[in-house]
Amino acid sequence: MSSRRVVVLGAGFGGLELCTTLAEAGGEAFDVTLIDKADAFVFGFSKLDVMFGRTTPRAVRLPYRQIAKPGVHLVRETITAIDPESRRVSTDAGVHECDVLVVALGADYDMDATPGLQEGGNEFYSLAGAERLASIIPTFSGGRVVIGVCDAPFKCPPAPSECALLLHDALRARGVRDGCEISFVLPLGSPVPPSPDTSAALEEAFAERDIALIAGRRILELDPGRNVVKLDDGGDVPFDLFLGVPKHRAPDVVIESGMTENGYIPVDSATLQTRFAGVYAVGDVATAGVPKAGVFAEGAARVVAQTLIAEGRGGEPPERHLGRGTCYIEFGEGRIGSVDIDFLSGPERTGTFHAPSPALRAEKERFGSSRRARWFGIQA
Questions:
Q1: How, if at all, do strands 143-149 and 180-186 pair?
Q2: Rg of the chain over all Cα atoms, to the nearest angstrom
Q3: 125-176 tens-digit pLDDT
Q4: Rounded distance, CA 18 to CA 297, Å?
Q5: What does the pLDDT look like over 207-242, one tens digit per residue?
Q6: Distances (CA, A) of 74 to 9, 139, 162, 241
Q7: Which domains occur in the chain, in start order?
């Protein structure tokens, strides 16, 4: 019996976990092609480490060439077109046809969606942006800093809160915190809406550090000439340094494929299937009813992989996608807490907060090292 041809677009959390799980199934059941235009993977949390000088861009990059999985072929190509009807993918190097197509291309950043952001602000959600800020933040000695989330949804919802707390630490360590103001503008009503306890803990940490939280407000534009952020309630927030999270959207090639609605691919939240036969979407590119964070992309990919394995073996399908995951949160001063999120298993979404502790710091380190070992074969 011939192998089932699977093409996976994107080698992030979702794509890497999907390919690894299929490879573990053994045998020759799957012929998997993993396509990504980049040459390396970077954990999202590593960008804050780079931004605040705790590591270097080179140190956090995990080259894809280290991936060696049976039945998985990694190609570094740029996707130019996706035809979900025929499950045909065109790239700058050729054409890939398959029996199963999984789109895991993540979300792109739309700098132009917020007027003035490109000219007057800095984004810290890309590795390049974090690296640029690593040279700017150490030179900032006084004035007003605004950390602004330009729109929702956005990846890793706790990350902007972490940025505010780590910035406080960095300024205090240089003895310039008293001459600086930090404001945090957020379109959500609270830092982590599914978990009131987590939000309350972060808000308490902000208050202790004199960080002004402006929640429930959307940023309309930046006015670099006046150095103000214009909000949807008509208010202005002055800034000397703007650290922004740009508006997110699916990559252009995905939008052009006709798969998206309102900027993302709609899927069945239980199975991650799209409306096209044999086509799935996982992670930030999809609308699955869960946060846009790597751990949720990983869980969704595992469900898709287990579905394909069950189909090949004639077994029972896996448990439906439950939208569960743990997010680790930097509270500053070396302290790490966490929140266990459950979006889909019950009648309401929930978030259980765990206060910062040494055990959680060790747990976060294990989270990273276990994925490096599982996906790249890198042993700590």
A1: parallel
A2: 21
A3: 999 999 999 999 999 999 999 999 999 999 999 999 999 999 999 999 999 9
A4: 10
A5: 999 999 999 999 999 999 999 999 999 999 999 999
A6: 10, 41, 34, 40
A7: 4-107+250-320 (3.50.50.60), 111-247 (3.50.50.60)
